[in-house]
């Protein structure tokens, strides 16, 4: 009886002490450390996107990527993963296809997720107005399973365009459920979350401090995207953060793929690649003492796999 009581007290104290530690400390770093995931979205949409992202990964300046499973160049990513098994690749859960003349379909036959041509809707409103919950759950699971069956064991989950999941607490719960079920972190921060959403988060869920990205206003400003990223990096506070970027080459493939679009299009992605493979970026993270980490590290250290 005494030993059981001692064990209970030990577990209680361990849980309490763990709850008092910052996420950085739980990962084995100091609470004063600046930890950053440089996260390249949209793997799979083109050879250009893949090649630029692979190059940035190889250079060590991009630390993580995420894959659009229904995309046409999915198998090239699977091939890369075989060659570079340690590459940090998550699943960019996808329910929309936003480009004008370039589309992808669900990996399931879910009719509520597609337009009259059988492609994903190109915007969040049409998706939210038509999607059935059971179709969404089936599709997202199928995307994860297809990646796994092709040798891509995802390091995390995140969301393409932010559609659907943040429109309903039921879909938000599904997002968390998928991370728990596959025992990998989901990209999540408390910033901007409604209180009712925060209430369904459990201790097992990993919450990073901030998720940064660039918007249309940053592309148009003097200094462009490089100024945005420089401002983020030079003002970064201690903690665990993610910076979402999109890396590709501004070539014929990407120009035709993103035709009629200005934002997040071909030149934008070349600008991202140029900045995050530049000497300037390397110098900034050195001067600011920023440590690049991966989702894989977070999952391995904080999520129980059994």
Automatic annotation (TrEMBL):
**Entry's InterPro entries?**
Glyco_hydro/deAcase_b/a-brl, YdjC-like
Q: Does the keyword Hydrolase apply?
A: yes
* Domain of life the protein comes from: Bacteria
Question: Is Cell cycle one of the keywords?
Answer: no
Keywords linked to the UniProt accession? Carbohydrate metabolism, Hydrolase, Magnesium, Metal-binding
Known cofactor(s): Mg(2+)
Q: Which CDD domains match?
A: YdjC_TTHB029_like (cd10802)
Name a single GO biological process.
carbohydrate metabolic process
MF term (GO), any: metal ion binding
The protein's matches in PANTHER family, at most eight in alphabetical order, are given as: CARBOHYDRATE DEACETYLASE, YDJC DEACETYLASE FAMILY MEMBER
The molecule here is called Polysaccharide deacetylase family protein
């Amino acid at each position: 009886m005494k030993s059981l009581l001692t064990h209970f007290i030990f577990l209680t104290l361990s849980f309490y002490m763990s709850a008092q530690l910052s996420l950085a400390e739980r990962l084995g770093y100091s609470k004063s450390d600046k930890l950053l995931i440089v996260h390249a979205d949209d793997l799979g949409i083109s050879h250009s996107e893949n090649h630029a992202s692979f190059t940035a990964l190889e250079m060590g300046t991009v630390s993580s990527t995420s894959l659009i499973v229904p995309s046409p160049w999915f198998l090239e990513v699977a091939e890369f993963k075989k060659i570079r098994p340690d590459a940090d690749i998550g699943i960019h859960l996808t329910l929309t296809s936003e480009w004008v003349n370039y589309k992808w379909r669900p990996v399931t036959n879910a009719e509520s997720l597609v337009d009259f041509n059988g492609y994903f809707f190109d915007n969040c409103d049409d998706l939210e107005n038509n999607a059935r919950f059971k179709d969404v759950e089936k599709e997202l699971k199928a995307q994860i399973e297809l990646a796994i069956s092709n040798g891509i064991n995802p390091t995390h989950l995140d969301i393409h365009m932010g559609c659907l999941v943040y429109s309903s607490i039921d879909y938000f719960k599904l997002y968390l459920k998928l991370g728990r079920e596959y025992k990998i972190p989901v990209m999540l921060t408390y910033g901007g979350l409604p209180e009712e959403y925060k209430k369904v988060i459990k201790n097992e869920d990993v919450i990073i401090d901030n998720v940064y990205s660039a918007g249309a206003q940053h592309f148009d400003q003097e200094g462009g995207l490089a100024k945005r990223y420089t401002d983020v990096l030079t003002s970064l506070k201690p903690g665990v953060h993610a910076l979402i970027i999109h890396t590709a080459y501004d070539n014929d493939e990407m120009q035709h793929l993103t035709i009629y679009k200005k934002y997040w299009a071909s030149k934008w992605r070349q600008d991202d690649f140029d900045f995050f493979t530049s000497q300037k970026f390397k110098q900034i993270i050195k001067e600011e003492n920023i440590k690049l980490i991966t989702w894989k590290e977070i999952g391995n250290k904080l999520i129980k796999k059994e």
